[in-house]
Design a protein that fits this description.
Blueprint: H1 18-21, E1 28-30, H2 33-48, H3 66-79, E2 83-87, H4 96-108, E3 112-113, E4 123-126, E5 156-163, E6 167-168, E7 171-175, H5 176-186, H6 188-193, E8 199-201, E9 213-215, E10 219-222, E11 225-228, H7 232-237, H8 249-262, E12 269-271, E13 278-282, E14 286-290, E15 293-294, E16 304-311, H9 323-326
Length: 350
């Protein structure tokens, strides 16, 4: 994109900065006793049918009170600040199947769960499995290493914290529009480069007939929306493919500036998710990250979060180039990772 074609600076609620958000508490919502009760009743009722939690639909999981807030949450994600933390689910008293069912049931009121890996898992388990962050075919969430700011392959990303790490493992969020505003002010020449295609490694999860990497721009301006698609570690590892486009020194400078701004405490927001916290993030406008962590020696106490990737109704249109990663870009039915071997399922344990 030519510099002259860059959209003007953003000023809406999704262009928040960490400096301003740290002084606010409106992004934290605490469940009432009645709301906790109704999600537990709905989950127990569903479990009594013997169904797969990954197949829950909103009509299978009635939430007369909480569903009203979840409708407002969806509006906040799509048209507001783009994230929220829902606090107060007493997960310490749940077995894992009950926690999984509650989380999948709440997610079903926001959108349709999508596959998060080639195994077709619509429910992810975020924990250290001993994978190496240097393995080009490993997923960073299976390690205890710092992740770096990135986006996932879904409209909305949801997390439910079951257990915290002994030290670290904080969640970090940053607004793509806030980064854009700073780059527009300081280096519009570098910002313009991020609207061109850049190779991103698929890390071994390759849909049929596709290249082992995508060529989607980190930033897209499409039908009045700035959409972000970014994972620097996977951009760097895409260089292992001889036919992938090479980054110029100017590209590297632009990516380095993007990373530097994402890591600026004035722009990002850090939070420690407690057991029972649910975090929902709008993936097309926000980037997320996680600090490295030190876990507990006891396997029963180790850090463990559940994750959902959701395709939601009423969302923005995505540029056609996103079909490389999302397959379908049909609103309400897009996203996830699908390969010829993929069979959808929701593993309760991992």
């Amino acid at each position: 994109m030519d510099q002259s074609q860059l959209p003007p600076a953003f000023s809406g609620p999704s262009a928040w900065t960490g400096r301003e958000m740290r002084d606010r508490t409106d992004w934290i919502v605490t469940l009432t006793e009645a709301q906790v009760g109704e999600v537990e009743v709905a989950a127990q009722r569903f479990l009594s049918t013997g169904g797969d939690p990954g197949e829950i639909r909103a009509e299978d999981f009635p939430l007369p009170q909480l569903s009203r807030h979840l409708a407002r949450l969806l509006d906040t994600l799509l048209h507001g600040r783009g994230f929220e933390v829902i606090r107060g689910l007493p997960v310490a008293g749940y077995d894992q199947r009950l926690a999984v069912t509650i989380f999948c049931g709440i997610g079903a009121h926001l959108g349709k769960a999508r596959s998060q890996n080639a195994q077709g898992h619509v429910l992810g388990h975020v924990r250290d499995l001993g994978a190496s962050p240097d393995d080009p075919n490993s997923r960073i969430y299976q390690t205890r290493a710092r992740q770096t700011f990135h986006t996932d392959s879904a409209d909305v990303v949801g997390l439910l914290c079951l257990r915290e790490a002994r030290e670290g493992g904080d969640s970090l969020l940053v607004s793509a529009e806030a980064i854009y505003n700073r780059m527009l002010e300081e280096r519009p020449d570098l910002l313009a480069l991020l609207f061109g295609p850049i190779a991103t490694d698929r890390r071994g999860e390759v849909p049929e007939g596709m290249k082992p990497y995508t060529e989607i721009p980190p930033l897209s301006w499409h039908e009045g929306h700035l959409t972000v698609y970014y994972q620097r570690q996977y951009i760097d590892s895409a260089s292992r493919f001889p036919d992938a486009m090479r980054l110029t020194p100017e590209h590297v400078e632009a990516l380095d500036m993007f990373d530097r701004l994402a890591n600026d405490p004035d722009l990002h927001l850090a939070m420690r998710l407690r057991p029972g916290d649910m975090q929902f993030v709008y993936n097309h406008g926000q980037l997320h990250d996680r600090t490295g962590f030190l876990d507990w020696p006891d396997p029963e106490r180790r850090r463990h979060l559940l994750r959902l990737w959701l395709s939601v109704p009423g969302d923005r249109p995505l540029p056609p180039v996103f079909a490389q990663r999302y397959g379908s870009i049909t609103i309400g039915d897009r996203g996830g990772i699908v390969t010829p071997e993929t069979r959808l399922n929701a593993p309760v344990d991992v």
